[in-house]
Write a structure and sequence with these properties.
Blueprint lengths: L10 H6 L2 H39 L2 H22 L2
């Protein structure tokens, strides 16, 4: 044991040499890469997502009508099956 790190000295380096450790390191590196990529565009993406959500909300009444119509069609088809 070293005085500075105790019994866990070098354990991170040893784990990094295993397949599991290498996969964790790769995952962390990819995550860091995407964070670096997303940081400068995050405000723009947030605005696009908000605008898209608002636009989709405008179609909610139409979706309700179409859902009601589809339900009617399914009821008719189910009724015809019983004939």
């Amino acid at each position: 044991m070293t005085k500075e790190f105790g019994k866990f000295a070098g354990s991170a380096e040893a784990k990094g040499r295993t397949l599991s450790g290498a996969m964790v390191n790769l995952k962390d590196s990819v995550g860091d890469l995407f964070k670096s990529l997303a940081q400068p565009i995050s405000a723009t993406l947030a605005n696009i997502i908000r605008d898209s959500a608002d636009a989709i909300k405008e179609y909610e009444p139409l979706a309700k009508v179409l859902g009601t119509l589809l339900n009617g069609v399914l009821l008719i088809v189910n009724g015809l099956r019983d004939l």
